[in-house]
Amino acid sequence: MAEARRLAFLGLGVMGRPMAGHLAAAGHHVTVYNRTYSRAEEWVRAHGGAARETPRQAAEGADIVFACVGNDDDLRQVVTGPDGGLAGMKPGAIFVDHTTASAEIARELFKTAAERRVAFVDAPVSGGQAGAEKGILTIMCGGEAAPFAAAEPVMRHYGRAVTLMGPSGSGQLTKMVNQICIAGLVQGLSEGIAFGERAGLDVAKVLEVISKGAAQSWQMENRGATMIEGRFDFGFAVDWMRKDLSISIAEARRNGARLPVAALVDQFYAAVQARGGKRWDTSSLITLLRDK
Question: What number of other Cβ atoms are within 10 A of residue 273's Cβ?
């Protein structure tokens, strides 16, 4: 292992909790913060380290501060202000944000951090809760080369692919591309399965066959069987996907990109939410196609 570092992790949700756990298991000293303090105390009982009641307190003395929270507003709360993480960070430290947020806030916080002589790296992840728990996330980063190089070995405790994509905001933009592609894939897989069912095929056998050819995808390999079974009480929630797609669609309005399929699938996810599927896995799109 590389030299043990003093780290902080802000946000212990379904992603942050296992990610911080990997850091502790690797021998780093980890101080954690969570808005619900009891969850931070619970994490410490499981992994050691320390818990603090504010982001500023958690970040004090840390070489690298990581965050994984809900959205732009949540991120501002844990980063800025008198109790935010930046207020407690020493000059030369690095803030790595794993939140899926807008490229605008990444650039904003990059500048705010620089004023305090702190580096900021936007580093959204892909791989879901299972990827976080197994330590095999894909991490897309934006920022400067030197702080990325310093933080990259630490991120590899829970990331199997950690890549600097370009300047500040590039990590978030890459995550938008990721979500745009997933939206189309899940809808296509849903339509294929529903078509196969109506055609009277053994759809499990169909997927087994076509997964060996050009139609193969992560979604087919990891969600095909559960879609056939109608199980959606796990995985990446529809609410979260709609949040991510809203960020992508807003960015497209700014840069002039056309997202007709992503916009349509976003409407389909709104219909899933309306029928009570807010926390269903994103593969629940197929429920809209099974109605008689």
Answer: 17
